[in-house]
Amino acid sequence: MSDETYTMKEAMLYSQRIAQLSKALWKAVEKDWQQWIKPYDLNINEHHILWISYHLKGASISDVARFGVMHVSTAFNFSKKLEERGLLKFSKRDDDKRNTYVELTEKGTELILLMYDHYYDTHHSILEGSLALKELYGRFPEFLDVMAVIRNIYGEDFIEIFERSFKNFKESLVEEADTVSVKR
Amino acid sequence: MSDETYTMKEAMLYSQRIAQLSKALWKAVEKDWQQWIKPYDLNINEHHILWISYHLKGASISDVARFGVMHVSTAFNFSKKLEERGLLKFSKRDDDKRNTYVELTEKGTELILLMYDHYYDTHHSILEGSLALKELYGRFPEFLDVMAVIRNIYGEDFIEIFERSFKNFKESLVEEADTVSVKR
């Protein structure tokens, strides 16, 4: 077997490994996610759209689709349903007339915050499964190799949106903490 | 905000990160997988059942379900369909009368091997996305933190089956190489 053939087989082996790992990881995440959102009559795509709109402080439908890894039509149709339920509103931006934007209504924001308050009402196997690593390393794992692969597949701006949403997320947690302190 | 509350919020942030990462990774894997198997009129579950049966050299339906992360009924129903197509056969084992086992027929084995021969007919974004890491580190990434989380969620025997299937996979590639050398 030539070196090239060997390398191609090794690459195939690697990519089959990732396929198995990724399926197992996603199925665990999916189950956790479904259990968490079940009481709120949302499916994963709907919750994901609310999540993205909240953490990006409004987003275009194409950003939602891209960052939520769903078809644009899926993002649009579920956004419509969320609008009908009064959780989301559509808008145009003056500086970008071509794209449709979505943002949470007050009711949508309240729902997202309520869901965070009840985050620990359900079991999160991913979290449970990561605690031993946290104890060992003093912090949660960062999955840097997964991040690198995703960066290469989805592009730099996917990661940029990813980091921005978590930066906002983190800040909103800190703000909430400050609010609590002031109230005290 | 108490330390405990902070830690719980940090944990929530972490688990939401993993959810996003894992969805993006799985969607890329799923697309690659679907494109690869499309010409053979199989869905991912069906191919996964053939894959597991081949690499474990026969498996019980419950092993297929567990390792393939699907419901036992899904594993059983798709196995039945594969049996009808002459790709899989059911059997009982003398040392384990309670479980139903599946193994590939000759036709099933030929199909699996044919599919490997045509692996590179389609695009594998996961592979493409990992090449830069391979160049940097001299080997493909191992996703050890993902493996650790999966081990904690699915248990040690899941990982044991995982490693056994890839050991068999690797050996079959080496055997094939030897066969080629002898033929030469």
From TrEMBL, chains A, B:
Keyword Glycoprotein: no
A Gene Ontology biological process term: response to stress
Gene3D superfamilies, per the entry: Winged helix-like DNA-binding domain superfamily/Winged helix DNA-binding domain
The keyword Transcription is annotated on this UniProt entry: yes
Keywords attached to this entry: DNA-binding, Transcription, Transcription regulation
InterPro entries: HTH_MarR-typ, MarR/SlyA-like, Tscrpt_reg_MarR-type_CS, WH-like_DNA-bd_sf, WH_DNA-bd_sf
One function term, GO molecular function aspect: DNA binding
The organism's place on the tree of life at top rank: Bacteria
Pfam assignment, any one: MarR
Regions annotated as coiled coil: none
Domain HTH marR-type: 11-155
Classification via SUPFAM superfamilies: Winged helix' DNA-binding domain (SSF46785)
PANTHER family attached to this UniProt entry: DNA-BINDING TRANSCRIPTIONAL REPRESSOR SCOC (PTHR33164:SF58), TRANSCRIPTIONAL REGULATOR, MARR FAMILY (PTHR33164)
Official protein name in the record: HTH-type transcriptional regulator Hpr
